[in-house]
Specification:
The complex is a heterodimer of chains A (543) and B (87). With 543 residues, chain A is α/β, with parallel strands linked by helices. Chain A is built from 20 helices and 16 strands. Chain A has an eight-stranded mixed beta sheet with strand order 1-8-7-3-4-5-6-2. In chain A, strands 9-10-11-12-13-14-15-16 form an eight-stranded parallel barrel, surrounded by five helices. Chain B is α+β, with helices and mostly antiparallel strands and 87 residues long. Helix content of chain B is 38%, strand content 25%. Chain B contains three helices and four strands. Chain B has a four-stranded antiparallel beta sheet, with helices on one face. In chain B, a hairpin with a 5-residue loop joins strand 2 and strand 3. The radius of gyration of chain B is 11 Å and the shape is globular. The chains are: A alpha/beta (543), B alpha+beta (87). The interface between A and B is medium-sized, with 26 and 21 residues.
Chain lengths: 543, 87
């Protein structure tokens, strides 16, 4: 067994024979027997064909990977119409008496080299795009196709590099995964692979002896096993089946509404712990992000993260969600979540201590930096702000006042921001008791059932001795949830759950009957939960 | 001639998509639109996608946009609006 490592761009497993793909060497003759006018005519005709192909690819990609990801083929069309590019091709044809294919190839190489030499990683990745469009035109001119990329047998494709158009054109039924030597996780090819759910590894050093051998591409562990041992193969096969089950479920539920048989609708959102989880959110077809735990930004940082650094992260998440709701919970640090630079003193009883909104309302500089970053991100999609650990109306008013101050500051700076919905976590018994008053202040409630259970039952969930006393379905908790939903609805608030209880399938029917508007769960729990909801009928009495 | 400056807020700078949109928008105008780095080191016609990308303008950088000929007033306003919305 041989193991090679690379960089995974999708958590997934592919098992099958490796197939090395070598791009056909296109022989372009430099000197033309035709006049420059005739060669230019050939180029223009080929360019038109290429534009038509790109338009068709755009439609195919639009269907398979969505508008944002399909945009690359629109850009390819524009690149192919670029004045400088066309002038360069024409120049080579005219001054060198060259063939159209030679002129196109040379121009593609020159432009691509210019991008490859730039100091910006993003722009370097664009070198592939220029090569891609040039090769397309050359192939049309020389009659060479990319037909030889795949066999009849499904295989893991191994190549030096894959262009975005090659990736979209591949027959997915025969593509188990792909491995490339070059490419960046930033490339459009990587993005497309991710969206199409194809396990892929980049930056892998392979050799020709790999061709035809059996391999396991393990995207979870960034490696590929060639001629895998029997027990590894078996365990990977089992893991892959799990993935497939999930994928099948996704396919059956994708874009379908979350409605019970008798027509009651509920939103299913995702909880995420860092920006990298957004891929999982989309893969599992969540309708939004119900809890974005912003504290990871602070925990992964050596010092207080700046407004710009936070803004970049929020914006990336918000843009990726493309208009779907993103609920960002403001800093919930303290208790079990500590960052050294906050310099928080040791406490006797941290769960009841200096944490979350309590830190934010006393260290206003830290809080306002975060609020401004969130506000700025709201210009790029749909953003809601949620304050944690609230116990009083005053806290909410103070937090909202700071939010208004931040809006004024941004306005003064001439920075744009969008409409931001404001809500609170209901995770203390005090907030439940004051739900009516609190609902007057905000637009939504999200029940944090983990802390709410701990505070209501006075049970520390970390203590195994208390297991026999702990009942996650304790009637006190369920009544509190019901009370919160009713109070919220009385005052026009929507009410959701973002704690663990939200994913508890034994309670889903109860929650729907209580009138909850949203459940936010970990990405892996979304599809099973949606399947369950779509099979429930609330009008039927319990057996 | 009309001119304005703009500071890029998009974290990736003037990348492929907005550059493509910009080229498209600029082509539709009856003025010549030129984008230049604030230090004057590089400039490109707004209609030229690859040249725009090749300038490698990053977030936080300030560019000067010049609109010449045609309906300068309206076209400069349209360009300013475009930058605010897309970059």
């Amino acid at each position: 067994m041989q193991v090679a490592t690379g960089k995974s761009i999708l958590n997934g497993i592919a098992i099958g024979p490796l197939r090395i793909y070598k791009k056909a060497e296109v022989q372009t003759s430099q000197t033309s027997g035709l006049t420059p006018e005739e060669e230019w005519k050939r180029f223009e005709t080929a360019k038109e064909t290429a534009q038509a192909q790109l338009a068709a690819l755009y439609d195919k990609a639009l269907d398979e990977v969505g508008e944002d990801n399909a945009a690359i083929f629109e850009i390819h069309q524009m690149m192919l119409d670029d004045d400088d590019y066309l002038e360069a091709v024409q120049g080579i044809i005219e001054t060198q008496g060259a063939t159209a294919e030679y002129a196109t190839e040379t121009t593609g190489e020159n432009f691509s080299a210019a991008f490859a030499a730039m100091d910006d990683e993003y722009m370097r990745a664009r070198a592939t795009d220029v090569k891609d469009i040039s090769r397309r035109v050359v192939n049309i001119l020389t009659g060479a196709g990319d037909a030889a990329m795949q066999d009849d047998q499904p295989a893991i494709l191994v190549a030096d590099d894959l262009t975005p158009s090659e990736t979209v054109q591949l027959d997915k039924s025969k593509l188990l995964g792909f491995i490339t030597r070059h490419g960046s996780s930033n490339s459009h090819t990587a993005i497309l692979a991710r969206t199409m759910n194809i396990p892929a590894l980049i930056g892998v050093d392979f050799d020709d002896s790999w061709d035809g051998r059996t391999a396991v591409l393990d995207g979870y562990n960034h490696c590929v096993y060639i001629d895998p041992a029997a027990e590894l193969l078996a365990s990977m096969e089992a893991k892959r089946k799990e993935d497939l089950k999930q994928a099948a479920l996704l396919q059956s539920l994708k874009k379908k509404p979350n409605v019970t048989l008798d027509g009651r609708e509920i939103k299913v959102y995702a909880n995420i712990g860092n920006a990298g989880d957004v891929g999982l959110v989309l893969q599992n077809d969540a309708q939004g992000i119900g809890l974005f735990r912003s504290e990871f930004i602070y925990l992964e940082s050596e010092d207080f993260p700046t407004e710009d650094a936070q803004f970049a992260i929020y914006k990336r998440v918000v843009e990726t969600m493309a208009g779907k709701k993103v609920i960002i919970r403001t800093l919930d640090i303290g208790a079990d979540k500590q960052a050294a630079y906050f310099d928080l003193p040791k406490e006797e009883n941290p769960a009841l201590g200096y944490r979350a909104i309590r830190i934010c309302l006393t260290r206003k500089d830290i809080f306002k930096t975060q609020l401004r970053a969130i506000l700025r991100a709201s210009a790029y999609g749909t953003v809601s702000i949620m304050f944690p650990m609230v116990i009083s109306v005053r806290e909410v008013r103070d937090a909202k006042e700071l939010l208004e101050e931040c809006k004024a500051e941004l306005k003064e700076r001439g920075v744009s921001f969008g409409e931001v919905e404001v809500g609170i976590m209901v995770e203390t018994p005090a907030a439940v008791m004051l739900a009516d008053e609190l609902a007057e202040e905000v637009e939504f409630f999200s029940l944090g059932t983990n802390d709410l259970s701990q505070y209501t039952l006075a049970i520390d969930r970390q203590n195994p001795k208390l297991d026999s006393f702990y009942d996650p379905h304790h009637p006190a908790i369920l009544r509190m949830i019901k009370h919160t939903v009713q109070a919220g609805h009385r005052h026009g608030c929507w009410v959701g759950i973002c704690g663990e209880l939200g994913a508890d399938q034994k309670l889903t029917k109860t929650f729907l009957k209580m009138g909850l508007d949203e459940l936010s769960v970990s990405p892996s729990a979304i599809l099973p939960l949606r399947k369950l909801i779509r099979g429930l009928d609330l009008s039927q009495e319990e057996e | 001639m009309k001119q304005f400056t703009y500071t890029i807020t998009d974290p990736v700078g003037i990348h492929a998509r907005p550059a493509g949109l910009l080229a498209k928008a600029a082509k539709a105008l009856d003025s010549t639109v030129t984008i230049a780095k604030a230090d004057g080191s590089k400039s490109a016609a707004a209609t030229k996608l690859m040249a725009l990308m090749g300038m490698g303008i990053k977030t936080g950088e300030t560019v000067t946009v010049t609109v010449e000929g045609g309906n300068e007033e309206a076209n400069a306003a349209a360009m300013e609006q475009f930058f605010k919305e897309n970059l």
